[in-house]
Amino acid sequence: DILRPYVLDDELADAMIRGAKEPAPSHQQTNPTPNTSVLRSHLRVKPNFTHSDFMQWFDKLCLTLLKESTRSVLRAVATPAAGLPIIARNLLNVSFAVCHRDLQYDNPEVACEMLDFLQDALQRDVPEDVLRPLLELSDYLERFSMVEERLDPSTNPSRLLRMVNPSHQAHLAEKCGLHTKALRLVECCDVSEAVSYRQLVRVNVHLGLPEAAEGIMRMVQKSDINDAEMYADLGLWTEALVRYEAQLKTCTEDTLPAVVVGMMTALDKKGDWQKMLQCVDKYWTDEYAHLKECISPMVTHGAWLMSKWDLLEEASSKIPDTVLSTSTTFYKAVLAIQRGNLPEAAGLVDQCRREIDAGMAASSYHAYSLHVTLQHLTEMEEMIEYKTTLCVKRRAKLRQLWGERQETMQLSTRHIQDTLTLRSLVIPKQDDLDQWVRFALTGHKLGQTDTAIQVLDSLRAEVEPNEKLKLATYEIQWDTDHQKRMALYKSLREIVDNMNPASSEQTYEECCLTLSTWGLHLERPLKEVLDPITRTTQAHGSYTSWNQWALLNLRIVFRGMVKEYEQFKYLEESIKGLKKCIELSTEDELLMQDAMRLLHLANEYLDIANTPMSVNTLLKETCMAIKPVLWSQLIPQVVTKLGSPKEELRELTVELCKSIARADPQVVLFHLLVEDCVGAKKVLHHIMKDNKSLVEEAMAVATELIRVTISWEEKWIGALAKMHALFSSNNATVEKVQGLLNPLYELLLKARTMKEHQFITNNLQKLKEAQEALVVWSSMAPFGNPSKVKQNYIELWRTLHESLATSLDLKEVSPKLAEARNLLVGMPGTGFNNKVMIRCFEHNIPIILSVQRPRKLSIIGTDGLSYRFLLKGNEDLRLDERIMQLLGMANTLLKKGSIYKVTDIIVYPVVPIAGDVGLIGWVDDAEDLERVITYARQDKQKDIEMQVVAKHFGVPKVDWDALSHEKSIEALRVIEASCAGDTLQLALWLRAATSEVWFERRTAFTQSVAVMSMLGFLIGLGDRHLGNILLHGPTGRVVHIDFGECFEAAMERKVFPECVPFRLTRQLRNAMGVGGAEGVFRRTAIGTLGTLRNFKQSILVTLESFVYDPLIQGKLQEDAKPQHIQNKAHRIIRRVQQKLEGSDSCHEEQIPIKYLCPPRAYPANVYNKKDSGKSYLQGLNSSTPQSADCSSFVSSVCEVHFPASVYTAAQRSEGLSLKNIYNRVSSVECKVMCMKGHQMAGVAGVPMCSYCGKGTAKHEGYLYCTVCDQYVCPSCVEETQTEYIFGDSLPTQGDDVVTQVDRLICEATSPQRLATLYKGWRPWL
Q1: pLDDT in the model for residue 1270
Q2: Within 13 Å, how many C-alpha atoms sit on residue 1112's CB side?
Q3: 517 CB burial (10 A radius; 0-12, 13-18, 19+)
Q4: Residue 1129: helix, strand or coil by DSSP?
Q5: Contact, 427 vs 456, CB < 8 A?
Q6: 3-state SS assignment for residue 1038
Q7: Could you give the CA distance from residue 895 to residue 490 in angstroms, rounded to a whole number?
Q8: 3-state helix, strand, coil in the chain (%, to 5)
Q9: pLDDT category, 1, cuts 50, 70, 90?
Q10: How much is the pTM?
Q11: How far apart are alpha carbons 699 and 1289 in whole angstroms?
């Protein structure tokens, strides 16, 4: 299957992967062998070949390889290829590989000559038209040899990898524009030298991937390389300029040209035009005439941007012909347009396009600069039309087109500035001020603040100052100079007071909103903060203004910024603002966020005793004003409120569901069937009035799918496993065993399908014998011997386990579904107004051989397509459904707000059809990373890491879970030093047909890993072992599955807690390229987390909509006390908010108790059984406290994070038990925050805890909140989710995005954290 993308048909693929010892099939025995003399004659290259000789020789070689092939399918193509050489060229890879493979066993000498020919050809000065296909052939044979070795390690693979120096091939590939091939080859070389680093950066820049070059830059900064050219190649223009200026003082006459060119290039790239003019005055003279040609491209570009037209004309004439993107002809066309000579400009544009065409043909399609130049040529033609036409509408259309085109450009300040400068030839900057200001702000966001300030300074000098220009200047100063913020606030307030709202509506609105935001940040009086938004809502009332108004009023209410009796006034204003937003918005994504806020407000305030009637009425009216199509995207949140104990909330959601059902009953039907409450039955009854057949069919489909989900064999196996656990723990009683088995015996009387009757026929005798033994045991209880019962049921378990099927026939397990045709029920998961209905179900149902044995179900739609689902039981999928909803919204936010281009997250439908049964959309062509890595390795390398560790420790086999923490860290370091860790990297390479496909997939892989890592960190997603991460073959993106352990549930495990924010192990990092996590991953992570921070309110509202759902709360905290469930939701929201603010980690290093004292035993050495009963605590053995008063601390303080100073003091005390640590910390001065953010203080002698209602004789560690009037005992610390932060570790301000991402990468790659994970997580991969 790996080879099939590279060959013509299946027959040829089978022939290529056939082993050497396997004889050819009989129908190919008559095929002629390759004529070696003919091949040798056409392989020779004469020394005096010209360009035309090389082309003729190459065409003859391609045709000869087809003719001499032993495969009939290739020989048949030789005849048409003789008249059309392009056919033979396109088949060169396959024909060469087939001939070489056949000769490798029949005539090895000629096979070696074929490879020697390729080596010789690549060493010669071959024309690019021939060199390019030869390099592609080399690329193909490299992959072919790897696959050949993997399929049959006993064969002798191609010598290609050892033939030609990869660095030489990389140089050749870069020379002829095969940048992806060059990148692959350079990465195969030793990149520890500056030359290799420069080549890597250069190739990545050519490929339009500056993020990867940034990763190389960070690697270089960590090394000792201190070369000006190195920094220039890496794009560090400031550092390069400093070094060039230092070299200028000591350079000789011979080295002066290189230093001046480097310095001028750095000034040009940096955009420092003042210094550029100074250099031009010094070096653009007759004294340095020999430098003019070298520095002419930079001087010309600077003269163009600074409107120095005479200098532009002189400098452009000196540009060498080899510089395509800044050719002399291009600047002549610019000068012609500036001087009004439009006919001459049109001719020059055509000439320039012809000159660039050759460069585009010889370059990779990733060469973005050439594409921008072509765009400039197109716009120059449009500018000529703009100047000549008198039609006002046509001019307006052209300006609109230019604006739209700029929105699609990459965020490169150089290219955007060139584009705007070009347009300024026909559009004065005064008339295009919005685009220039937007460009300056974009440059500021990209970290090029100096360029942004220069642009704004030039605008102030050229155009009349206005409010928009002042606002942009103030925003940059606000970010760069914190000392001036109050002065900037006052200046902006003065501007707003003097502005006329009617003169510039958009600018006035931007100024007012910015002023309000700054006032809130500076903690100005509430009236002063609200005043600017009140003005703009009254003046214009756009969606943005009303949305800001609503959010600000909500913030006032939820943060308790006013007294309680005043809160409802602000709440009512907030609801009015949301109602206005609904009336004004045209984007569904924005409306959905507003709808979620309204639903949350309804859940909080409807049916509350002190809520005014006006608020209740307004809230209901606003909710009903939203269109059903919007509510259809929030059906899970709406439907779960149907069972609310609040009557008004329940009636509101009933009406909302009815309105959705009137618009499209299909979209809400399955959700109503899952809910077992009065409200859901009301809505179903309403739907049945007009669609009775639809409801009946949906109920029948849901019932039958539940029947298909779990077979009787699996039910019995599960029950018998539970019974065995009871016996093993000595907790088995007759009542417990009968409670497990009696329902299954009763189920035998309800057999309906062929499969169920077959189960009874095959197992009836053993079931009777086991039941009789159970009856005998029960009759003799409590003195009976259950050994006979255990023996019979163990034998039954073995029989059932052996009879488990790997696939099901739908006719046997559900005849109703098998006979169903042309149903009225819509295809699950296809959305609102779905026109695709269920036509039928495919009869063959494969079973996935995992623990829960889910089914792969295929449903044929009325559109003729097959929709595949994973039918999963024994798991509530409602949380997965909400997480998919959150990921879908994240896709929308990233498209809308990210300044960096990121790949989409692959989302799939999740449709619950019962409490513990549901359908999950099948992701085609996806495979979990566990299988990808295992399949890419040979049998002897499947567990190579553990073999290396065992050899290091001198033991035959290593049990990872039994290793101590120190030994686990040591094992990880041994693996890193001894194992390559490139299996996933190799798998990505082998699965791609060409270098271009490999590059695109690897980039998508890296970006998708980064996006999902940030989202996973945000929602606390755990259990990220390799089986829960899929690799999507066609795109290279990763797909995450199984969201059961989210919101840091995996970190709170009592056994092997996960203390890494996301998975970023060595295999993943190496698959990202040489830069690892420092390049594309880091930049994408920064862009993703920055965007999520910008849309913090949208994220929090989405989470609130289902975190406070009782069904989801029960899943997040099973067996919790009812009074603590709400606190769990509060903690989740607060924790996510901290992550979005960068305050998720204390500055002082904290040592969590649960990591200091994990539940597994850590022996002192690797296999010392006598010490296995001791608890290992950070490298120190310490006995676990056994007293009763200490045992409670294990669960009560496991969330407390201690500073290192406290830990060290406790370590020096009489023992390192939990009790000693707790007593030590209890005496430390601390800052403790209650759930509402109030500071709590220590107290003694309280009567009882406000949460659990219990009191103790000693009240050590009790805390009291004076604002909330609540006491908290130590045993309720975890359940109330009170944050304990000791000493000065409370951060006063959150980390910025870059710092937070860097910290998270360090945590995810920390050996100390990875060493705590269990074996199945495979932290070494």
Answers
A1: 61
A2: 26
A3: middle
A4: helix
A5: no
A6: strand
A7: 35
A8: 65, 5, 30
A9: very low
A10: 0.80
A11: 56
